[in-house]
Amino acid sequence: MRVLLIGSGGREHAVAKLITSSRDDVRLYVLSDYNNPGLRMEAENTGGRLFVGSTTSPQLAVEVASKISPDLVVVGPEEPQFHGVVDSLREGGYYVFGASTRCSQIERSKVFARQLLWKYGIHGRLHFAAFRSLEEAVEFIRYVGDVVVKPARQVGGKGVRVVKDTKAYLSEVKSQIKNRITEEAFYELAKHEDSEFKVLVEQRVDGVEFTVQVITDGSYVLPLPLVQDYPHAFELDLGYKTGGMGSISGPGHLLPFINREEYDTSIRAVREVLARLQEEVGDSYRGAFAGQMMLTGLWGPTIIEFYSRFGDPEITCLLPRIESDFLEILDRAARGALAGAKLAVAEDTVSVAKVIAPLGYPVSKSEASGHPVTVDEARIRELGCHILYASIEEGADGRLYTKGSRAFELVCRAESYDEAYRLSELAVSYVTSLDGWPLFHRSDIGSRWLVEERVKLAEKIRNIYRLKQARGTLGETSTLWVPSGGVVTNPLLSTVRW
Q1: How many other CB atoms are there within 10 angstroms of residue 23's CB atom?
Q2: Which end of the chain has fewer surrounding CB within 10 Å, N or C?
Q3: What are the backbone dihedrals phi and psi of residue 345, each rounded to the nearest 5 degrees, phi first?
Q4: Is the dihedral of CA 428, 431, 436, 438 positive or negative?
Q5: 246-292: per-residue pLDDT in tens?
Q6: d(CA 240, CA 247)
Q7: Is residue 179 part of a domain?
Q8: Is the Cβ–Cβ distance between 359 and 439 less than 8 Å?
Q9: C-alpha closest to that of 57 among 86, 34, 28
């Protein structure tokens, strides 16, 4: 079976490993933005090859596909979806696993996603306000307390800031901080012209985050095991938010702090979103879909945002636990024949994934770029772990160089978190900087104390939302006051003018 995989990073390397582990005779080809050595090796080991070029170019994707005549095309990242790569390939007669431009709106436009949730009254929705101009957003945020400020378009997890202020007044310093946060969100969209709204201001909630991932052919939905992602750069959930510094999964389809009822509620919400999305855009969703969720006292399972693809490093965390022929599942989804498919996972195991990044990430890509590194893959394999190449390029001299983002992803499987954690920390030690530039990772991910902290927090939250559930007040929250607009209960606050 000939497969074309489009994408450049750690997520695509994980998917490539899952594809090449198929019982079918696979020949893998990859279209990548740069010479990712991991993807190149996966392709060449099957008799395929890696093509270097823009993954967001529909024309190039069709050109590559015409050369190799793939039986299946798998589109990994979101940006090729946004730019019409999936649409062009399908128009060319290829079976494609990946969301179309219309379906991927659910990730590209956070405002569209929020409006969809409120239009259909879907469980777990949050209040929000969306703004087309910086001036409107700055004026609004002067008067609000606890909120989250985001770019209104997906920009790789950048620009998200939490504003926590329950005071009845604002000092000049606090006002300056709020203005700066709003400006950062606004200017993250400066290079994107495909977003009507620029800044999204959301109701802030606290809780335990987790990711629900599914595969769908437009009608049948196949859930994957839950994963918890750790977006903050440093230990104790401190520092800038990143694309994800690691994740944990297992045992079974749950997490130690998420129970079956909460899992089922989350899956129902995701199923409903997929159904309503397809009605709204008039297109069939054939690909991966993910809901970034949070267990909160407001709703229980609460929707934070959506991905129109596998999460990264969420799919990395599932790599060693999936026992089914994953290629067969992807192919059936692309052909609209997923009904009845089952996903077998190593039920009694857990996995811990950790990201290794160069110092400077995620603030300064230029500082974090161009540093030579080396990996002892043999020692990592001896541990039973996987090493995945992400933002790493092989130079003309044969050496590996950082490209400024998350460089490597490591994932280890074991029968307990203690053992998976131990293995992951050992595996990290086999990645070395050659010029002395510091590499960092989160050593707390997968540790017993952090898992136990999540369990304790989840139980406290569970007591709160169950009380609200018994009283019939799930989702109820205080109203927002808008200057010259009075008390506003309409969630579509972007319609309010002052």
Answers
A1: 8
A2: C
A3: -125, 160
A4: negative
A5: 999 999 999 999 999 999 999 999 999 999 999 999 999 999 999 99
A6: 17
A7: yes
A8: yes
A9: 86
Query: Which residue's entry shows tokens 């043999």?
Result: 378
Amino acid at 260: R
Total domain count, the chain: 2
- The candidate with the shortest Cα–Cα distance to 143, out of 188, 174, 187, 118, is 174
Query: Quick one: which H or E segment has residue 360?
Result: strand 350-362
Q: Parallel, antiparallel, or unpaired: how do β-strands 232-234 and 238-241 relate?
A: antiparallel
**Same domain, residue pair 94 and 145:** no
Q: What would the two tokens of residue 312 be?
A: 């990264």
Burial 302-330, CB ≥16 within 10 A → b, else e? bbbbbbbbbbbbbbbbbbbbbeebbbebb
Q: Residue 18: which H helix or E strand, with range?
A: helix 10-20
For residue 146, the 8-state DSSP code is S
Hey, what are 184's tokens? 């950062």
Pair 6, 63 in one domain: yes
Pick from 9, 3, 97, 85: nearest CA to 315: 9
What tens digit of pLDDT does each residue of 358-369 get?
999 999 999 999
Of 204, 236, 269, the position where a domain reaches its end is 204
Q: Indicate whether 98 and 144 sit together in one domain.
A: no
Q: 329-384: per-residue pLDDT in tens?
A: 999 999 999 998 999 999 999 999 999 999 999 999 999 999 999 999 999 999 99
- Residue corresponding to tokens 């050659």: 434
Q: Say which CATH number the domain at 187 has.
A: 3.30.1490.20
Domain coverage including residue 159 = 127-204
Q: Is residue 176 part of a domain?
A: yes
pLDDT digits (tens, 9 = 90+) for 126-154: 988 888 777 777 777 766 667 777 787 66
**Does any domain span residue 235?**
no
Task: Quote the CA–CA distance of 385 and 410 in Å, as a whole number.
Answer: 7
Q: Is 105 left (phi over 0), alpha (psi -120 to 50) or beta?
A: alpha
Name the 3-class secondary structure at 426.
Answer: helix
Q: How far is 351 from 445, CA to CA, in rounded Å?
A: 11
Residues 137 and 181 in one domain: yes
Q: Is residue 101 part of a domain?
A: yes
For residue 494, the model assigns a pLDDT of 41
